[in-house]
Every structure is written in structure tokens, then in C-alpha cells.
Design a protein that fits this description.
Layout: E1 4-7, H1 11-23, E2 27-33, H2 40-44, E3 47-52, H3 63-72, E4 77-79, H4 89-97, E5 101-102, H5 107-114, H6 116-125, E6 133-134, H7 141-151, E7 155-159, E8 169-171, H8 177-192, E9 197-201, E10 207-215, E11 221-233, E12 236-242, H9 249-265, E13 270-278, E14 284-290, H10 297-304, H11 308-316, E15 333-340, E16 342-343, E17 349-350, E18 353-354, E19 357-359, E20 366-370, E21 377-378, E22 385-393, H12 396-409, E23 411-413, H13 419-426, H14 429-432, H15 440-448, H16 453-468, E24 499-506, E25 509-519, E26 522-527, E27 530-539, E28 542-547, E29 552-561, E30 567-573, E31 576-581, H17 589-592, E32 596-598, E33 603-608, E34 615-616, E35 621-627, E36 630-635, E37 640-645, E38 652-653, E39 658-664
Parallel strand pairs: 1-2, 1-4, 2-3, 4-5
Antiparallel strand pairs: 6-9, 7-8, 7-9, 10-11, 10-13, 11-12, 12-15, 13-14, 15-22, 16-17, 18-21, 19-23, 20-22, 24-25, 25-26, 26-27, 27-28, 28-29, 29-30, 30-31, 32-39, 33-35, 33-38, 34-37, 35-36, 37-39
EC number: 6.4.1.2
Keywords: ATP-binding, Biotin, Ligase, Nucleotide-binding
Organism: Zooshikella harenae
């Protein structure tokens, strides 16, 4: 019987495992890096041990130290979660040799599925549909060029040892292959310690549908149905749901049977996910198998009313599957959103910072899986996933509506997230009707990357109302009388109309709002050459704004008064946080045309791609930055030359760090934008 469990992971998945294990009466041991010594999973565990410095290679990937800690803590089992060592066959074997139960499949099964070449060889014998591709041992450019030519472009390069979008590149023509291979190999080596690649035919607009399977040690298996993970960007999932919209019962059965054949072909035990690409004609092809618990497992839990972590722990102890196939049924619909620390308005670059305020929405049938709390610092060392927001509904529209409500109520300050982007994504007609594919986000991203002007204007009015009701700075009044009208920001005037003009700055734009107070809860507002009356109500920091056509907006506001009388106002509208300043200094145009190129996010320098003095054309790659396991290329903003580098490969840089000096051929006509 399992009495003590060590969780060899961090963040939300470590917290998720702890909740179930402790409910089963199992003592939980956490491990942590120096960056995570105050993390939530450390606080929740019954006991915690330090692993080492912040980099994963020196902490969460230190398998020998993790096993040594497990022995010291007298843990009978280790749960690897997902990522890090979860699909490391050597680690699973080392646990077994140490007499510790690895909560996962046998090392041999991990090894087979971890090598996409070996996996396809086994699955071909099991009659599992496979995509045309190359998965040979010869990793030379020549071998890949020959195979790509035979398969036909476009092709997809993939890391043979892992997934999650790491080490994955689409190649549209032969001239791109060498560059993309080198980039994919670098990412694969950093993420999985193995730069082996494979090649597949690239399907332009398939759906990404995966099947959750479980096998026990007695050889019994079940399918817990499918999840649709088609909404993704950069090959990383953003939204997952179960069941897959519009999937026929016949196709569901065929895919479930194929997934179980794949598992049985390699002697699988425990939780696994078999991923397929599904075409419009209902043909499906094996993509990969994840030999672990998936990030998106909560949607399966919500529609089956099963605890998959509990299943894992029971099977690891040798027990039979808790249910047979005929006992499992789909109940309602569940959708999961991945809340990332990233900036959608800057190409989804990873974001870092300190969480200064955090309040999760409290809504029925809403689940939040997270490992963060107020005061946490989000660093460059780990995946930018902050939380998973999961909703259940009797119908798919009900689940979507619940998620939109959750995004409109979530309060997370101090770090940039994709919260508003997710809200806008859920509003798209194709998403609402379940008519998406793996390329959908790329097609619509330019239209939903930025919040709409309409929502910004509504937020402006909310900011103005928050300013009206806020106390004035001592800079603006001389009286000490708390009841004096001069202490108020309202437009009170003796024998004059209640008129007020307020200028607020948002980014580099200034907006002037003219307001006339009709009564205590009604304003006539003139903004952008339009005038309209608004009714409003306040409850705490929530403002309800209603237009004359009865359209209501719920806004969350946060007002902060500076020592010099400057007001900083945050307003959340439609899931997006807008930041306004009553006064703001603007950088001069001369300042904005400097010759330095700066880091768009904190990270480490991977490579310098040109030499000092090299003449380059616009968009020439200059250097590569790596942050949160992903590479970003810094390109030339115009034709010119690099006059000096301020960094070398391996250097850690902060956001805004001057990477290099660049001399443009023609400063007047150059484009000062940095692309990454």
C-alpha cells in the first residue's frame, strides 16, 4: 500500500497531484528549486526538500537527487506529473532499480513511444493509421532533403523525443530546410536532451483530436473518450475540450479502438494519450502518444466524473481499473483554457514579473488548476503556464458562456497574460460553432490580437467614473474640510453646469473625455466625436455601465493615486486589462529613433547570427534569444549594419536590455519596429 508519494514536479500539476493524493490519505513530499522555495506546491505538501538552483537542468531534471530524496523521505512511489522527467525512460528504470514505484508506464513503453521512429514501427504492425514520413536513424541534412522531396512539401520537422511544440518546425520549401533543422535540433536538445528529429507530411487544416486511455497491470484497457485540441498557436495548445464537437459516434469508436491497439502493442500501463490528426473526410492518422498525464486531463474528468490522478495511483499499486468500458459515459461538455504569462500584442512573447494582486472568479461548475498565488514571481526558467481555467456545462454553449464570465471576473495584476485574447477567441463564430482546425488561430490572430476600440472606449468611460469617485490629491486642494466639494473630482460648480473634461493616456495615445453629470448615476459622455448617455452603478471596484439601448458592460476597476497627483487606473473590460494614466510623460520622437535593438523579453542569448560590421538587409536574423523553452529571433529593422554587440552567447539579459548597436542606411525611411 502506498503511504508516501514524492511529486517530482512543480506548479499547477504538483498541486493537482497533492490534492488527490492527500484525499486518499497519502503523505505528499514536494521538491523545489531555489526559485520555488515559497511556491504553492511546497506549502501544500506534507514535507518538502530543496533540489538546487533555478535552472531545470540543475533541479527538476536532476534524477539522481530526486531518487535520493525519495529514499530519504521513505517514499514508496514517485509521480512525475507532466514535462521534466515524466517521459524519461531512464528515470523510470532508475526508480524501478531503486525499489521505488514510478507512477507511469514501464520504461520500455516510454522508450518506444518516446522515439517516434520506434513508435511508428510498432504501430504499423498494430494497424494504427500513420502519416507518410521519415523516421530513420540517419539525421543528416541530405537524408532529410531526400525524404522531404519524396513526401512533398510542406513537411513538418518534429523532435523525436518529446512534444508540446518544442523542436517543431513547418518547412514550406527546400531552401528553408537547413535553417529550420538547426533551430528544431537546438530546441529539442534543450527541452529533451536529444536532438533527434523526424519528418512528416504536413496536413494543412486537420483537427487535433486525442484519445485518453488507461491500462492496468492485468492487461485491461479502457478509452475515456476524446478531447479536441485544435485551437493552438506555435503548435502549443491554448484551448482543449471534451467531447470533440461534431465527432460521430462511429468515428469516436474507431479512434478509441485504434488508441487501445496502440497501447496494447507496447505493453502499456497507466494513463496515456494517443494523439491523432483528423481530416474532413474522417480519415485519421496517428501523430504521437504522450506516456503521461496530459495538461488537459481535467476536461475528461469533468465529462466522465472520474479522478484520473486517483486512477493512476490505484493502478500503480496493482489494482484493477476502477471502471469497465460499458460503465463510462459522456456527461455534458467541458472546456479548458490555458492562462499563459505572455503578451499577445507583442507576438505572444513570454512575460515575467511579480503577481501583485490575484482573485480567482467563484462560479459554479468552474475549476481552476493553478500553482500560483499573490506575491509570486514569474521567472524565465519555466513554462509560462499560470493556470488552467476549466468549465463544465450541460451543453457546449453553456460551457463557453461560463468561461467568458470567468475571464470577465478574473483579477490578475502585475504580469501580462493572454486573458483578453482568450476572451476574444471564445467570441469568434467558428469557435462558438466548433468549426476550427489546427491552423484556425493563425488565420484569425491578426484580427483578435489587439482589443477592439469599442472595448477600449468603454474602459475609458469606466476609468473616468472611477476617477470621479476617487479622492483628490492634496496637490489639488487647500482645504482640510472633508465635506468640501473642492475635495471631489466631480464637476460641481456654483451656478454653473456640471461639465468636466478629463484627459487620459493609454500607451502612446491621449484621449479627452467630456462629461456632464445629469444625476448621481447618469453621465452624458462625449468621446471620439460621439456623445451618449450612460447609466452606471458601483459595487466595490465593479462598475456596471449601461447604454441607452440597454446594453450592459461589467467593468472591474483599480484606482491608484500618485504622490504628485497623477492617477493610474486599471480597468478590465471583456477580459482585457486596460491601463490609463491621468498624466504621462511621452518619449520624444527623437528618443524613439535610437540605433539600439533591445530584448523584447528576459531570456538567454543562444547565438549571434552575424558579425560586427556585417551589412544586412531588412529582416535579416541578427541573434537568437531563448526564454521559457522557446526561441525568438531578433531581426534587422532596416537595411544597415551591426556596429557593436552588447552580449555574447549564453548571456542572460533582461527585458529592454540593449542587445546591439545598429546603423541604418537611411534613418529617415527605416522602419524602427523590431520583429521577433
Amino acid at each position: 500500500m502506498m503511504r508516501t508519494l514524492l511529486i517530482a514536479n512543480r506548479g499547477e500539476i504538483a498541486c493537482r497531484i497533492i490534492h488527490t493524493a492527500q484525499a486518499m490519505g497519502i503523505r505528499c513530499v514536494a521538491v523545489y528549486s531555489s526559485a520555488d522555495q515559497h511556491a504553492l506546491h511546497v506549502q501544500l505538501a506534507d514535507e518538502a526538500y530543496a533540489l538546487g538552483p533555478a535552472p531545470a537542468s540543475e533541479s527538476y531534471l536532476n534524477s539522481k537527487k530526486i531518487i535520493a530524496i525519495a529514499k530519504q523521505a521513505e517514499a514508496e512511489a514517485i509521480h512525475p506529473g507532466y514535462g521534466f522527467l515524466s517521459e524519461n525512460a531512464d528515470f523510470a528504470a532508475a526508480c524501478q532499480q531503486a525499489g521505488i514505484t514510478f507512477v507511469g508506464p514501464p520504461a520500455q513503453a516510454i522508450s518506444i513511444m518516446g522515439s517516434k521512429q520506434a513508435a511508428k514501427q510498432h504501430l504499423q504492425k498494430a494497424d494504427v493509421p500513420l502519416l507518410p514520413g521519415y523516421h530513420g536513424q540517419d539525421q543528416s541534412l541530405a537524408a532529410f532533403q531526400q525524404s522531404a522531396q519524396e513526401i512533398g512539401y510542406p513537411v513538418l520537422l518534429k523532435a523525436a523525443a518529446g512534444g508540446g511544440g518544442k523542436g517543431m518546425r513547418i518547412v514550406h520549401q527546400s531552401s528553408e530546410l537547413a535553417t529550420e533543422m538547426a533551430a528544431a535540433q537546438r530546441e529539442a536538445q534543450k527541452s529533451f536532451g536529444d536532438d533527434t528529429l523526424l519528418l512528416e507530411k504536413y496536413l494543412a487544416q486537420p483537427r487535433h483530436i486525442e484519445v485518453q486511455i488507461f491500462m492496468d497491470q492485468q492487461g485491461h484497457g479502457v478509452s475515456l473518450f476524446e478531447r479536441d485540441c485544435s485551437l493552438q498557436r506555435r503548435h502549443q495548445k491554448i484551448v482543449e475540450e471534451a467531447p470533440a464537437p461534431g465527432l460521430s459516434a462511429k468515428l469516436r469508436e474507431r479512434m478509441g479502438e485504434a488508441a487501445l491497439r496502440a497501447a496494447k502493442a507496447i505493453g502499456y500501463i497507466g494513463a496515456g494519450t494517443v494523439e491523432f490528426l483528423v481530416c474532413k473526410d474522417e480519415q485519421f492518422y496517428f501523430m504521437e502518444m504522450n506516456t503521461r498525464l496530459q495538461v488537459e486531463h481535467p476536461v475528461t474528468e469533468m465529462i466522465t466524473k472520474q479522478d484520473l490522478v486517483e486512477w493512476q495511483l490505484l493502478i500503480a499499486q496493482g489494482e484493477h481499473l476502477p471502471c469497465r468500458q460499458q460503465q463510462l459515459a459522456i456527461n455534458g461538455h467541458a472546456i479548458e483554457l490555458r492562462l499563459y504569462a505572455e503578451n499577445p500584442q507583442q507576438g505572444f512573447l513570454p512575460a515575467t514579473g511579480t503577481i501583485t494582486h490575484l482573485a480567482w472568479p467563484e462560479i459554479s461548475h468552474l475549476r481552476i488548476d493553478t500553482g500560483i498565488q499573490q506575491g509570486d514571481e514569474i521567472s524565465i526558467h519555466y513554462d509560462p503556464l499560470l493556470a488552467k481555467i476549466i468549465s463544465w456545462g450541460a451543453t457546449r454553449p453553456a460551457a463557453i458562456q461560463r468561461l467568458q464570465q470567468a475571464l470577465s471576473k478574473l483579477q490578475l495584476w502585475g504580469i501580462t497574460t493572454n486573458q483578453g485574447f482568450l476572451y476574444r477567441l471564445l467570441q469568434q463564430p467558428e469557435v462558438c460553432h466548433g468549426q476550427t482546425d489546427t491552423q484556425y488561430v493563425e488565420r484569425v490572430v491578426s484580427s483578435i490580437q489587439q482589443p477592439s476600440d469599442q472595448h477600449r472606449n468603454i474602459a475609458l468611460i469606466g476609468a473616468a467614473i472611477a476617477w470621479l469617485d476617487a479622492p483628490r490629491s492634496p496637490v489639488h486642494y487647500q482645504t482640510t474640510d472633508p465635506y468640501s466639494p473642492w475635495r471631489s473630482n466631480h464637476a460641481w460648480r456654483l451656478n454653473q453646469p456640471n461639465l468636466l473634461t478629463l484627459t487620459l493616456h493609454h500607451g502612446q495615445q491621449a484621449f479627452t473625455i467630456a462629461m456632464r453629470e445629469i444625476d448621481a448615476q447618469t453621465l452624458e459622455v462625449a468621446l471620439a466625436e460621439e456623445s451618449q448617455a450612460y447609466h452606471f452603478w458601483r459595487k466595490g471596484n465593479v462598475i456596471t455601465l449601461q447604454t441607452t439601448d440597454q446594453h450592459r458592460h461589467s467593468l472591474i476597476t483599480h484606482y491608484q493615486l500618485g504622490t504628485l497627483g497623477d492617477a493610474s487606473i486599471k480597468v478590465q473590460c471583456a477580459g482585457e486589462w486596460f491601463h490609463f494614466q491621468q498624466q504621462r510623460h511621452h518619449q520624444s520622437a527623437e528618443d524613439e529613433t535610437g540605433s539600439e535593438l533591445t530584448a523584447p523579453m528576459p531570456g538567454s542569448v543562444v547565438a549571434l547570427l552575424v558579425k560586427t560590421g556585417d551589412a544586412v538587409t531588412k529582416n535579416t536574423p541578427l541573434l537568437i534569444l531563448e526564454a521559457m523553452k522557446m526561441e525568438h529571433t531578433i531581426r534587422a529593422p532596416a537595411a544597415g549594419k551591426v556596429t557593436r554587440f552588447h552580449c555574447q552567447p549564453g548571456a542572460l539579459v533582461t527585458a529592454g536590455f540593449e542587445l546591439l548597436d545598429f546603423e541604418r542606411e537611411d534613418v529617415e525611411s527605416s522602419d524602427s519596429e523590431v520583429t521577433a
